[in-house]
Amino acid sequence: MTELSLALLGPPLVKRDGTPVTFDTRKAIALLALLAVTRREHSREQLADLLWPDADSAKGRASLRRTLSVTAAEMGPGLTITRAAVTLEPTVQVDVREFEALIARQDAASLERAVQLYRDDFMAGFTVRGCPDFEEWQSSVAEELRQSLARGLQRLVAACIEDGELERATGHARRWLQLDPLHEPAHQAIIRLYGWSGQRSAAMRQYRSLVRILDRDLAVRPLPETTRLYEDVRADRLGPAPARSSPGPVPPPAPVSEVPEALAAWPLVGRAAELAAMRAAWQAAGRHGRVVAVVGQAGSGKTRLITEFRAEAAQAGARAGVGAGAVLAVRGHDGETALPFVLAADLLRTALAVRPDLPKVLPAQTAAMAGRLVPELAAAYPDSIAPALDSSVAVTRLYAAIADTLLAATARGDGGSDAGQAPAGVVVVEDVHWADSSSLGLLAYLVRRLADWPLLLVLSWQPEQAGWLRVLRTALSEADSQSLGETIEPGLLGPDAIGALLHLEGMPRVDVDRLMAETRGLPMLVREYVEALRSAEQAAAGDPSAQADWWPPASVRDLLRARLQTVSEPTRQMLTAAAVLGSDNDADLLRAVSGRGEDEIVEAIDEALARSLLTETAPLAAGSAPIYGFPYEALRKTAYESATLARRRLLHGRAADVLTRRYERDPATARPAIVADHLQLAGREAEAAQWWWRAAGLARELYAHTEAHAHLVRALALGYPQLPGRIALGEVLVVLGRYREALAELETAAALAAFEGSGEPAGPGDAGGRADREAERAMQASIEHKLADVHHRLGDWELAEAHLALVTELVADAEPGRLARVEADRAVVAYRRGDADQAAAFGQAALSSARAANDPGATAQALNVLGMLAARAGEVAEAETYLRESLAGARRPPEPSAGSAPPFGVAVAALNNLARLLAETGRGSEALEVAAEALELGSELGDQHRVAALHTNLADLLHAAGQGEAAMAHLKEAARRFASVDVGDAPRPEIWTLVEW
After folding, report:
1. N or C: which end of the chain has fewer CB within 10 A?
2. DSSP 3-state assignment of 219?
3. Contact 301, 428 (CB under 8 A)
């Protein structure tokens, strides 16, 4: 029989009857490795998607057929191929399988054989280009096998010591250390072995090597037990190695810290009324949904109240049976307010975890849209393509898709007769004050549509942090006016509640008045002080000299610092890493950043959980890991500030490196702004600048202009190239209505462009020089065009025309698309200046240039301008034709073309102008609908000045329709936005005259 073997521990090697086999494609090796390690069959679709991710279905399957043909020719009976799937026969010898079987055994001979099999890391040096999912799988398998080898070597060292073979034990310990030079238990084992062998100088060198490595890479000292071991070796008091026949287990290289029993759940007292209000809102969420806002200062017990309600809701749902309303819960995190849609994505992941079949039950378009944030939701519809988030229509559709997904995940019943009696679904979002602006928009969207949904939405925030929740609070006020909303404000605990709490905690002798004086009844402080008192009583019971009536220090920060000092050193280091990371993290991230070993991290997490220094959240999806975070922000800050500046900088650098690798594997698992922040805090400013620029680009794609501005400022401050940075900053400032700053940035960019392009003119044969000169002219034209736009908005028509005339000269022979846009803008400026003939001439020229350039965006813009001009000239039918053609063109999927302006911006302009035309021709109700659509689309763009104009126009239409109250609301919003436009010290009445563009 043919003998087939596959060696994957090290560079891959396939043998047939002892002879190496080669393939003409690396993907054959990748396919065999996948089949060998997973030990199951894979469908052809899975393999094609994994190994040819960029190819369409037909091409991917064709490439797979060829690869299978080549592979089967060499593997013969070892590979089973059917029309649907492929599998590797178990008769094929695979070193990974043998290694895993041997390393799981306890005897020394099996362990020796296992470590010999491990030639190198899994598929070392092997890569497959363009297959990110396979690379991620390969990396994951390699890490798992390295961890298995480390555990096996640790057991093998102990077995060799027990057999009295100290030299062999030392060799294995050194290999164990090579896997992770920061692994302190391996250092301990080597120091101990040198001590037993009488090599004290070698033991001291090993210890000092450890000191140097830990100081350089982690900025920490060795663990106390390591130092004691070193001192014992140096003082010659270690004692002899265990005798070969000595009974009892050998002491492990790394002592395990004792972990106290987990603290009991904290009782809920003094919150009967608040809990009853939440129950009532939930019961009322039948056909009409409800929203409850839980508002209170940090430490007021919001989370404890919501946790109690969530438990009750979950139990009620379980009693109601399959199909009852589910509970979805997420929270915002400090530092994530600048990350667009992060909270929305967390909600979708939670929904998928609660209902894994969502990808199958969602409509294709809904799954595709929601899949933009959580790709797993679109898994059932691989051929569905969601539109890009390049318009307000697309963002609104995304909100609707998220809402439909949440409703599907929390659906009550199966539509049968009992569905009406099942409890409503619950969506909980805590710490909304840390939410990003895009997710706040989603929450406001949900609140405004609760009337038609059987859902209870629970939100919580700190009032002192809620300065930018205006849009959400407005939506909540509307819900309250419709009897669909309620605000709950947990207050301070009174003496009776604290007395009841102390009784439940078995501490009735504590002075309640003194506890009230120390804590003011703030639940978080009450808990901290009671825990400190409990620890003091326990200490007094074991030490008669201790003071049983000890009271915590007045400073809560001192109290929290004291709690952190009670844990073991590995746990303290892990908590520092968690504090540096700043939000919920999985164990692998904590291990990688802290530098501690796998076993140490597990023990550290257990200890931190037992002492209530961390909280554990269940995995969001099957197969994923639990996440860990601090129970409240004050504790995280204390842990962070307890570390030295040097250690914090080092850990920020490690965090940045780990998150960068995660981002490269899957951008959804890490966020550029967080990577940038870590790099900046680590002092790696040049790298941080690049990541802030990347974060700004992402924010701009999602119209999060305020966040984009903050990111750009940081990028420039840290050394990002000034010219592109200044241009981007100017563009964002224009949208935000900060015109004085925008002009300063764009003028600076113009000066930089002129300076950079001030070299010698190109000679007749200098093609490269001519290309550079053309690029310089294009850059100059772009900046001048942006400056013209700002002056146009400010009402300085002459200056706007001067800039536009210069742009015309610069692009007349090179960029027909931009020329069309310039001519369209010059038409509007001429119209503003009262020159109707020149405006018409420029408008027609713009349309001719746009069509000649085959530029849909420029064509839509030119048609909009011509429609505006025709409307003012009284040519109603012609104006409406132009405007509707412009709107149709702007709504088509955008085609890539150089310098193409976003069609959705033109769509807003066309809708606004069309609404004015309809109103002027007596079609008021239709005008209202079009104006409302223009405002809805325009609001997503975040252009303060133009949104103010849209509110004004809608207010005028509402007033004409007799809806005075609604008109006044829009007029007030318009006034607020107009007032936010920064034009400098000089009054600019033209700012208020922007009604069409």
Report:
1. N
2. coil
3. no
Q: Angle at CA 297, nearest 5°, toward 292 and 298?
A: 110
The two tokens of residue 573 are 């280091």
Question: Helices (H), strands (E): how many in the chain?
Answer: 42, 15
Chain centroid offset of residue 548 CA: 47
Q: Is the pLDDT at 488 greater than 90, yes or no?
A: yes
User: Distance between CA 169 and CA 182 in Å, rounded?
Assistant: 19
Does residue 440 lie within any of the structural domains? Answer: yes
Sheet holding 615-617, edge to edge: 585-586, 627-629, 615-617
Strand partners, 628: 585, 616
Largest Cα–Cα distance of the chain, in whole Å?
Answer: 109
Tokens of 728: 């981007």
Pull the structure tokens for residue 62: 């064709």
Q: What residues contact 209, with CB distance under 8 A and at least 6 apart?
A: 187
Q: Name the band, by pLDDT with cuts 50, 70 and 90, for residue 593.
A: very high
Interval 892-905: pLDDT, tens? 755 544 344 445 68
What does the DSSP 8-state code read for residue 427? Answer: E
| Chain CA centroid to CA 549, Å | 47
At which of 487, 521, 540 does a domain end? Answer: 487
Question: Tokens 């709690």 belong to which residue?
Answer: 563
Tokens, residue 187: 């250092």
Global pTM exceeds 0.70: no
| Long-range contact set of residues 399-402: C-beta below 8 Å, sequence gap at least 24 | 399/441, 399/442, 399/445, 400/369, 401/365, 401/366, 401/367, 401/369, 401/370, 402/344, 402/347, 402/348, 402/369, 402/370, 402/373, 402/442
CA distances (Å), origin 186, targets 226, 294, 574, 954: 11, 50, 19, 72
- Quick one: average pLDDT of 753-779? 65
13-25 pLDDT, tens digit each? 999 988 999 898 8
Name, in order, each residue with C-beta under 8 angstroms of 709's C-beta and a sequence gap of 6 or more.
729, 732, 733, 736
DSSP reduced 3-state for 252: coil
Q: What CATH number has the domain bearing residue 983?
A: 1.25.40.10
Beta bridge partners of 7: 13
392 falls within a domain = yes
Which domain, by its residues, includes 709? Answer: 645-720
User: In terms of Cα–Cα distance, which of 942, 891, 928 is closest to 394?
Assistant: 891
Same domain (yes/no): 79, 99: yes
pLDDT tens per residue, range 221-251: 888 889 889 888 888 888 888 765 443 333 3
Q: Is residue 867 part of a domain?
A: no
Residue 349: CATH number of its domain: 3.40.50.300
CA angle 504–524–280, rounded 5-degree value: 75
Of the candidates 505, 528, 552, which is a domain's last residue? Answer: 552
Find out whether 161 and 244 touch, Cβ atoms under 8 Å: no
Structure tokens at 8: 């994957």
Please say if the pLDDT value at position 612 is more than 70: yes
The residue among 509 and 842 whose pLDDT is bigger is 842
